[in-house]
């Protein structure tokens, strides 16, 4: 399923994600701009895009939280609702930055044109770090907070 949200509903959802995660109409988010929150992490996109198992783990984590559908916000500000199992948290190559989040907005995923995929939300980040033992080796060079 892939459904574009109506303008009034899309505006309401975008206001909420802006208030909670600092996602603005500038199209850029962490690490390309500040997130305004400490619970964010950015990886090199190849680390995730080239591993179908990692994408499946992300989808499963979201599904375990009861989210059968998620929102997908495109750089052109269109907002879609998609099935969680069709989530592909990667830059799509058509010059579109994209964000994903569910109705509760306790987590967010952002794929940029600068070869980064960012995650927000302590629970999601902790899960990824537990599942991916080599995670520190694949942080985006733009994400300096974890480099000693």
Description:
The chain has four helices and seven strands. It has a seven-stranded antiparallel β-sheet. It has one domain. The radius of gyration is 14 Å and the shape is globular. The protein starts with a strand and ends in a 17-residue tail after the last helix. It has 148 residues and is α+β, with helices and mostly antiparallel strands. A hairpin with a 4-residue loop joins strand 3 and strand 4.
Strand content: 15-25%
Number of helices: 4
Largest sheet: 7 strands, antiparallel
- How does the helix and strand content classify structurally? alpha+beta
How would you describe the shape? globular
Instruction: Provide the low-confidence segments as ranges.
Output: none
The sequence of SSEs as H and E is EHEHHEEEEEH
What Rg do the Cα atoms give?
14 Å
């Amino acid at each position: 399923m892939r459904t574009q949200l109506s303008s009034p509903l899309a505006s309401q959802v975008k206001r909420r994600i802006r208030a909670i995660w600092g996602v603005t109409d500038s199209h850029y988010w962490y690490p390309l701009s500040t997130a305004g929150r400490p619970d964010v992490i950015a990886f090199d996109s190849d680390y995730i895009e080239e591993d179908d198992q990692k994408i499946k783990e992300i989808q499963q984590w979201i599904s375990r939280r009861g989210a059968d559908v998620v929102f997908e916000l495109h750089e052109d500000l269109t907002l879609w609702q998609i099935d969680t199992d069709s989530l592909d948290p990667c830059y799509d190559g058509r010059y579109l930055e994209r964000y994903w989040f569910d109705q509760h907005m306790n987590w967010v995923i952002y794929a940029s044109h600068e070869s980064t995929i960012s995650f927000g939300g302590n629970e999601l980040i902790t899960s990824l770090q537990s599942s991916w033992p080599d995670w520190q080796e694949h942080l985006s060079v733009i994400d300096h907070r974890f480099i000693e």
